[in-house]
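A reminder from the course coordinator: this example appears on the midterm review sheet, so study it carefully.

Given structure:
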């Protein structure tokens, strides 16, 4: 497996009687935008795996290919070459219906821009994915309450995004991403708009919720301070996987 050696044993990464299948398999993934002299090689022959329960930090400077790779893993983009398997599903060959089901049932996203609905309260924002799945009201409200407590916002359920700090808004975004109990959480520069102290707090929270919810996470960042809580680091430079 490519990348910095694991410093902690991730939950679910081993089992009696044999190895557990990886949650994510990336094999020889390449993605190019444009053609000729103007072509941009966003990823170049990238391969790695992520085990169940791991929190992997995807590290590289801006323009290194992190966002493209995350979008391909989450089914928001397709590779020109190679394949991606998530939770046993070959993402790169799914049709549109399969991709919708993947993003509904298996994968969830946290973005640098919080993406909250301004007119909705914190609780209502977190409840949006559950409403889309027609989850019964009592079940939905209980799940929303649990998640807001989990991210430390139990006292802010009725506040709208404009009444919350940046760190609090990102906590709401994280709670919303957890609403449907995804097996894989993809976070693209989730601390990019936050100061260092708040960013570290969000990363610590990500570490805690990955353990509490029994999920796998891939978190992209270019800030070396943000990788301390990851189980493993995967580094990109100019679209290629690099050692160290």
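Designed residues:
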């Amino acid at each position: 497996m490519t990348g910095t050696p694991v410093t902690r044993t991730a939950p679910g990464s081993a089992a009696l009687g044999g190895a557990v299948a990886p949650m994510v398999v990336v094999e020889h993934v390449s993605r190019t935008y444009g053609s000729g002299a103007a072509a941009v090689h966003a990823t170049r022959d990238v391969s790695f795996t992520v085990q169940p329960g791991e929190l992997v930090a995807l590290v590289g400077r801006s323009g290194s290919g992190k966002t493209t790779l995350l979008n391909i893993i989450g089914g928001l983009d397709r590779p020109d070459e190679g394949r991606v398997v998530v939770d046993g599903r070959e993402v790169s060959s799914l049709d549109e219906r399969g991709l919708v089901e993947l993003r509904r049932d298996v994968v969830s996203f946290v973005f640098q821009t919080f993406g909250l609905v301004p007119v909705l309260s914190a609780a209502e924002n977190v409840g949006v994915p559950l409403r889309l799945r027609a989850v019964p009201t009592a079940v939905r409200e209980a799940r929303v309450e649990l998640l807001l407590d989990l991210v430390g916002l139990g006292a802010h359920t009725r506040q709208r995004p404009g009444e919350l700090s940046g760190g609090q808004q990102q906590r709401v975004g994280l709670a919303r991403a957890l609403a449907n109990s995804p097996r894989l959480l993809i976070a693209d520069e989730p601390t990019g708009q936050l100061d260092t102290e708040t960013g570290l707090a969000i990363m610590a929270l990500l570490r805690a919720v990955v353990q509490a919810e029994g999920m796998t996470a891939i978190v992209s960042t270019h800030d070396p301070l943000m990788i301390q809580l990851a189980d493993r680091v995967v580094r990109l430079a100019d679209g290629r996987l690099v050692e160290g």
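DSSP finds six helices and ten strands in the chain. The two ends are 13 Å apart (CA to CA).
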